[in-house]
Amino acid sequence: MGKPIIILGIESSCDETAAAVSSNDKILANIIATQKVHESFGGVVPELASRAHQLNIIPVVDQALKQANITKNAIDAVAFTNGPGLMGALLVGSSFAKSFALALNIPLLEINHMQAHVLAHFAVHPGNELSPKPQFPFLCLTVSGGHTQIILVRDHFDMELLGQTQDDAAGEAFDKIAKLLRLPYPGGPFVDKLSANGDPDMFQFPHPNAPGLNFSFSGLKTSVMNFLQKETAKDPDFIDKNLNHLCASVQHTIVSILIRRLEQTVKQTGINRVAIAGGVSANSGLRNALMNHTDWEIFIPPFEYCTDNAAMIAIAGYFKYKNGLFADQQSTPFARY
Ligand code: KG4
Ligand code: ZN
């Protein structure tokens, strides 16, 4: 075995400033600074995100090098997120990565954030070296605050988008409905927790009509809003009295929409290896529904690799490095597909 490839990964596409160090496919450090500044706004404020990235990027990288117990001279290449995401936020990470690579005279690797969520499944977690990795081809449901996609993964960089949301992402639906229920931001984890003591069949909400394998969540938010307006007009304490049932019913609806599309995808493709990624993959309702599918092979990475992180950027960088897919200093980030 030759000398392992050491990659520094940088992620700054949204409201997490993150740095990670990998040695081949093994993660040596995974540091995330979550920006608290957005909480009181009930959503990510792009300009505040850019500033917080500027503030956090150097300390986060420093900490990652310390945790990995290496100096910057041991790094073979720098991988950074070049999109999709918030432009100002992406520019902080990409400018840092370019300067760092230039100063050390090492190659740059530009990483698509969505591909990285998928490739997080191949990251080897220290202490968990034997956990099974998905074999190609497999399906990946990526569900977070910014994205909802079903991807057919044929190889590390051969992926086909089979379906995606036409409006809100699944996490966004959780967060926006949580806001209607007066829960703090981001509301997904609160809805999940409160659902444990609620009846998922207490309230019925309609499923959307998105074509093919696509998703739509904005109609669900509107129907919950109309329902709450009607009920609170009759009883102002309706939300407080029914909070657990409301959370459980909403969660049940979102999970059913996701699972139904996955079932259709498995049927259409004949592939029953199903991986999930993104912050919403932490949802207990979604995990339970997946586990009930004993006919599927399910892959769920450790939670710290599910939400936005730089370990996934480093691991994607490792595969790019091995394939000689390097970027140059002219590379510019992109906000959307
Ligand atoms: O992947 P992530 O950290 O960042 C984005 O790329 O958006 O995902 C964050 C999203 C938020 O919408 C949050 O509410 C949701 O993931 N989330 C959850 C849970 N944990 C995080 N949604 C439902 N149930 C959870 N347990
Ligand atoms: Zn993400």
Question: What attributes does this structure have?
Answer:
binds 5'-O-[(R)-(carboxyoxy)(hydroxy)phosphoryl]adenosine; alpha/beta; five-stranded mixed sheet; 337 residues; Nucleotidyltransferase, domain 5; binds zinc ion
What is the structure about, briefly put?
The chain has 337 residues and is α/β, with parallel strands linked by helices. It is built from ten helices and ten strands. A five-stranded mixed sheet has the order 3-2-1-4-5, with helices on both faces. It has a five-stranded mixed sheet with strand order 8-7-6-9-10, sandwiched between helices.
Topology of this structure?
Layout: E1 6-11, E2 16-23, E3 26-34, H1 46-68, E4 77-83, H2 87-104, E5 108-112, H3 113-119, E6 138-143, E7 148-155, E8 158-164, H4 170-180, H5 188-195, H6 218-234, H7 238-269, E9 273-277, H8 284-291, E10 297-299, H9 303-306, H10 311-322
Parallel strand pairs: 1-4, 4-5, 6-9, 9-10
Antiparallel strand pairs: 1-2, 2-3, 6-7, 7-8
Helix pairs in contact: 1-2, 3-10, 4-6, 4-7, 5-7, 7-8
The protein binds 5'-O-[(R)-(carboxyoxy)(hydroxy)phosphoryl]adenosine and zinc ion.
The site of 5'-O-[(R)-(carboxyoxy)(hydroxy)phosphoryl]adenosine has 19 residues, from helix 4 and helix 5.
